[in-house]
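User: Could you go from structure to sequence for me? I need the amino acid at each position, not a summary. Structure tokens:
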């Protein structure tokens, strides 16, 4: 969790409940930009926290993040927040909170909620409910079936010999990917962590980094590798990448190799650690390259590959019939990239979901590929590198000339799912796919 300096002891429970009951109204109507100076002067937030809130995205995203953080800022945070609302002429919100906002006072907002359901929200499921999920539901967690690639017909599904060259699907367009070079690829490889971070060094990560550097150079990207970055340095490199002129390129890639954890989110789960023990949420990483912050990448694919744990849980798998079992990999020195700093309940909290789902903007042309399912550890062999990177590198080498990216990532999912650590633990990669077209990498003839 974010490390903060409290402005009091602990927020009173009744104040927390008032904020929680009015979260929807606050997110809808609050203007955070007018509050920042006052909240800073009164010591409610530090400058770093305000910068973090500002980087979370749209006005609604910033309002949502501000309200969440406010609950962590001590007993004086609530009355000081009310003062700031009054000082910035946001009187209706201040009055709503001062009145204690009993449930009956929220009824006038009902007509607004009646109009919203024409926007059908994505169903949200806990990882524990995944086996109960109906087949026609669309999950917001990894391992979802990509919508951009139609399923092959049953009679062709198991045909192993692939036709030479690419088979284009006329019904789905492909991204333009013929610029030379194709685009920038930033690899951040965190191996050696500072002692005060209490994070172990990531032996074997350099093997992953070398493989990916070679692979994306072969795919005609300009590859830049940064090693052992602190949180601020990670943000600085991402900011520098967003400020580049990408107008003559067709794509941009960011690869994060580090420890990771599970954090609260409203878009992309998980966070990646700097070597100083401070983390950057994945949704903030993607924000640097979205259409708002990087106009020269608008309409172009932005790809993020995250080799880091999504949490601290270890997946022991479940029994399957013998014909489902394939040979698995079991390293003698398997390690994880897990730092279970936040509880699973933080990441899966439903307290803000009605508003978050109904107003969630779709981050088009972004794909985030995770090495593991949110909440679970990601395995890394100290001699051969991580399961995820080793498999993805080989799949790209063997299939990039004929298959699109989403199809290849499904191959990675399948192969990694067959592995086993210490003969017991499993791993399931997956992607959040907001690409609008098929993506084929450049390959050498």
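Assistant: Here is the amino acid at each position, in order:
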């Amino acid at each position: 969790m974010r490390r903060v300096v409290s402005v009091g002891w602990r927020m009173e429970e009744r104040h927390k409940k008032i904020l929680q009951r009015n979260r929807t109204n606050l997110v809808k109507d609050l203007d955070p930009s007018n509050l920042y100076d006052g909240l800073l002067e009164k010591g409610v937030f530090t400058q770093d926290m305000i910068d973090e809130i500002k980087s979370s995205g749209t006005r609604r995203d910033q309002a949502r993040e501000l309200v969440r953080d406010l609950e962590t800022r001590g007993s004086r945070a609530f009355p000081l927040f009310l003062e700031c609302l009054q000082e910035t002429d946001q009187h209706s919100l201040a009055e709503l909170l001062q009145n204690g906002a009993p449930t009956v006072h929220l009824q006038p907002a009902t007509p607004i909620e009646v109009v919203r359901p024409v926007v059908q929200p994505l169903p949200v499921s806990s990882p524990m409910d995944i086996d109960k999920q109906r087949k026609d539901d669309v999950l917001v967690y990894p391992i979802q079936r990509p919508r951009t690639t139609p399923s092959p017909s049953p009679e062709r599904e198991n045909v192993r010999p692939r036709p030479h060259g690419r088979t284009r699907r006329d019904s789905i367009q492909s991204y333009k990917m013929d610029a030379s070079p194709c685009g920038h690829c930033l690899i951040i490889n965190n191996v050696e962590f500072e002692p005060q971070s209490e994070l172990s060094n990531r032996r074997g990560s350099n093997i992953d980094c070398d493989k990916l550097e070679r692979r994306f150079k072969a795919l005609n990207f300009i590859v830049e590798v940064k090693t052992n970055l602190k949180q601020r340095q990670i943000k600085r490199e991402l900011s520098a990448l967003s400020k580049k002129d990408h107008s003559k390129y067709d794509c941009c890639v960011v690869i994060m190799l580090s420890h990771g954890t599970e954090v609260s989110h409203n878009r992309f789960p998980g966070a990646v650690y700097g070597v100083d023990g401070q983390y950057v949420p994945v949704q903030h990483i993607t924000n640097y390259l979205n259409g708002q912050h990087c106009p020269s990448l608008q309409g172009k694919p932005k790809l993020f590959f995250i080799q880091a744990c999504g949490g601290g849980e270890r997946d022991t798998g479940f029994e399957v019939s013998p014909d489902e079992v394939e040979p698995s990999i079991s390293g003698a020195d398997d390690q994880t990239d897990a730092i279970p700093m936040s509880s699973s309940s933080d990441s899966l909290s439903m307290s803000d979901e009605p508003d978050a789902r109904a107003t969630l903007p779709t981050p088009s042309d972004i794909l985030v590929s995770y090495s593991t399912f949110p909440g679970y550890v990601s395995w890394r062999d100290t001699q051969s590198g991580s399961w995820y990177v080793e498999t993805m590198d080989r799949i790209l080498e063997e299939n990039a000339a004929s298959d699109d990216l989403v199809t290849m990532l499904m191959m990675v999912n399948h192969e990694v799912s067959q592995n086993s650590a210490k003969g017991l633990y499993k791993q399931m990669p997956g992607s959040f796919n907001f690409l609008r077209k098929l993506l084929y990498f450049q390959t050498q003839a």
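One structural detail worth keeping in mind: The longest strand covers residues 183-189.
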